[in-house]
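Lab notebook, bench 4. The sequencing result for the construct came back, and we need a structural model before the next group meeting so we can plan mutations. Quick request posted to the team channel:

Model the 3D structure of this chain.
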Amino acid sequence: MKKADPGWLLIISVTICLTAAGPAGSGLKSKSLMENQKLAKQESLDKYLSGLISKGEPGLAAAVLKNGQPAIIYTAGVVDVKSLQPITARSNFRLASVTKQFTATAIMLLARDGHLRYDQSLRDYFPDFPPYGQAMTIRQLLTHTSGLPEYEGLVPEADPAKEIEDQQITDRQVLELLKQLKAGDFPPGEEWRYSNSGYVLLGLIIEKASGQSFDEFLHDRIFAPLGMETTVLYERNKNTVQSRAYGHTRVSGRWQIKDQSLASATRGDGRIYSSVEDLIKWDQAWRDESLLTNDEKKLALTPVKVRGKGPVDPDGRPAAYGFGWFLNPWEGHPRAWHYGETTGFRTTIQRFYEDGLTVIILANRDDLNPSSLALRLARSFLSSKSR
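Done. Here's the predicted structure in token form:
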């Protein structure tokens, strides 16, 4: 592939504490050696990243943060193949399932404020829900252990003669589909199975518990306090996405704007749009106590335990899961992470919290694997540990 336009690339030097902590008295020679090593690392990363995206194609935005400070900010490609406007650190991508950590945080804020309890029943908020929901709790919705069936398997196929946006299922319709069932996939709390349905219902619970619309609550309690100025829970005909990156799919060898499906209008499981610039502020909120105390955050970062089948990652390998975060370590490094995958978008956030390292990848094309790319970047910054 052609190299990305260098005008779209910004590499910010790794902070001096990462590179100049040589032995006492090492002097200029040691410092110069470390600066050369740093430069070599950046050039290696630049060469790899810039080979992924050809000019004029949909692309990605990436950030590597060390102790909250940008070590690398990288952008390449265009927000859409019609305008050919370049992706920047302020371009907003649909986060897909990376949204779940925001939904979980909203629930945690409401629990902290006494507006709900983690062990409340689903039927406390939806009294007409069938009896199979009585034993399901908010905590189980957060951890994918409720047994709620995946709603996408319940939705009728789209009518190709109609616009897909006019057929998209809403949160309320998901709730009604689940009400038609007689039982869940397994007894609540017995197993782990990834369920977008649970996070859709969490969005509705947030509205009931807060008295605000879901998008207003997220804005007032999370986005605005953190200075995430353009992040939005997008709802068609209600709000807009600033500096929007559109998702793309390759059709007959050519990239086309295609980022809507029947499930694209549900909110709590994947509807937030955000940018690398704003997600740096989100990462900082998990480093300090601006939203939640460290003790409160421990709930989100504690792996759920079940008697039956436990969590698995997208590749089917054993994993761990908390509130909106996968928690399985990587190469000996403790990690909180999530991926996002929806029509035209691929995303990930990988937080190596004991190492002070975070990698964020947002792509508006469906042929990249951001998690693999993020781990390749992470390896360049992490010290090796025994496996």
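Residues 1-31 have pLDDT under 50 and may be disordered.
Will bring this to the meeting.
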